[in-house]
Write a structure and sequence with these properties.
Layout (H helix, E strand, L loop, with lengths): L1 H5 L11 H32 L16 H30 L6 E8 L2 E5 L5 E3 L1 E5 L3 E8 L4 E5 L4 E5 L5 E6 L4 E7 L12 E6 L1 H12 L5 H11 L2 H5 L16 E3 L5 E3 L2 H9 L22 H13 L21
Parallel strand pairs: 1-5, 4-10
Antiparallel strand pairs: 1-2, 2-3, 5-8, 6-7, 6-9, 9-10, 11-12
Helix pairs in contact: 2-3, 5-8
Bound molecules: dinuclear copper ion.
The site of dinuclear copper ion has 9 residues, from loops.
């Protein structure tokens, strides 16, 4: 919307979803304004037109009018259904990440944002993204509820402890934009802010290769944890104690309860922290919990590693190149 970039009342619009959100918002304002003006005008008009002219004047009682009843039922019904359908469409667009999106991982922690790129670059309270690319955020919290909010992109999503939430965006204009925490999360909530840098694709590549030169990719970092935390002892080959994890990500897992579940990031996270919740058929419940031993960032790295051993046959290597978004939502 042209309006939103000129009026200081609105934040900049710098994502593909922003015009959609703004259009719906302007529609809501237009409908509300129309009826507010209509009602106020009629109040004044009727107050004058039908004022009592003498003490003895009594208005004729109105018994009812089907036509009127239908009119003020059907018109609001149509209007609210339009709002509902339109709003549902925009909501669906925002919260359904495209499958070819770039993955970035967010961990909220009192009171900072920690971000990781699959290539291994880690940022605190800063996020660099390329313009014109779809970016999918997988988010969780180390402690309390936070909310990840980029007004210029018109996205806001709660960041919850104990589970993953996702949201996506595609930046349309290079620039520096505000990042806020939009959920009161303690004394320093108001300082839980940051900046999002939308860069032209070339500039982004330069930034990424510069920043990731020293860094281990998430999958490589996960591979190290896999060895350090001794996951490797039971999970590398088909051990009697634990199932092999290669090819696990995204597959269907048969549980000893008879159920089958899809091995998505939520399932793997639960299996690390609460191994007894879901036992794979044919195995005993012998795995210890890693709650308190691994932080959320490390769990995300482990998941990235497990994801990376999906299509590297026969090796236990981790490559960021295999880091791609599967339809696990
Ligand atoms: Cu985190 Cu408010």
């Amino acid at each position: 919307m042209i309006l939103s970039t000129q009026l200081p009342l609105f934040p900049e619009a710098a994502s593909t979803i922003a015009p959609e959100v703004d259009a719906l918002y302007f529609f809501l304002i237009a409908v509300s304004s129309f009826f507010a003006i209509l009602i106020f005008s009629l109040v004044f008009f009727f107050a004058i037109r039908y004022r009592r002219r003498s003490e003895s004047e009594r208005p004729r009682p109105i018994v009812g009018s089907l036509k009127l009843e239908l009119l003020w039922t059907v018109i609001p019904l149509i209007l609210s259904m339009v709002m509902f359908a339109w709003g549902a469409k925009v909501y669906y667009d925002i919260y359904t990440p495209p499958t070819d999106a770039l993955n970035i991982y967010v961990v909220g922690k009192q009171w900072m944002w920690k971000l990781q790129h699959p290539e291994g670059v880690r940022e605190i309270n800063e996020l660099h993204v390329p313009v014109g690319a779809k970016v999918r955020l997988t988010m969780t919290s180390e402690d309390v509820i936070h909310s990840f909010y980029i007004p210029a992109f018109r996205i806001k999503m709660d960041v919850l402890p104990g589970r993953y939430t996702t949201v996506w965006f595609e930046a349309t204009r290079p620039g520096k934009y505000h990042l806020f925490c939009a959920e009161y999360c303690g004394t320093q909530h108001s300082n839980m802010i940051g900046s999002v840098y939308a860069l032209e694709p070339d500039a982004y590549e330069d930034w990424l290769s510069g920043a990731s030169a020293q860094a281990l990719s998430m999958a490589e970092a996960g591979r190290q944890i896999f060895h350090q935390a001794d996951c490797v002892t039971c999970h590398l080959s088909d051990d009697p104690l634990g199932p092999s994890l290669s090819g696990l990500y995204g597959s269907r897992v048969q549980l000893d309860s008879g159920e089958t579940v899809v091995a998505d990031q939520e399932y793997i996270r639960e299996s690390i922290l609460n191994p007894n919740a879901k036992i794979v058929a044919g195995y005993e419940s012998v795995m210890p919990t890693y709650r308190g031993l691994l932080n959320e960032e490390e769990i995300l790295q482990l998941i990235a590693y497990i994801r990376s051993i999906n299509d590297i046959s026969g090796t236990d290597g981790g490559s960021a190149a295999t880091e791609r978004m599967e339809s696990d939502q």
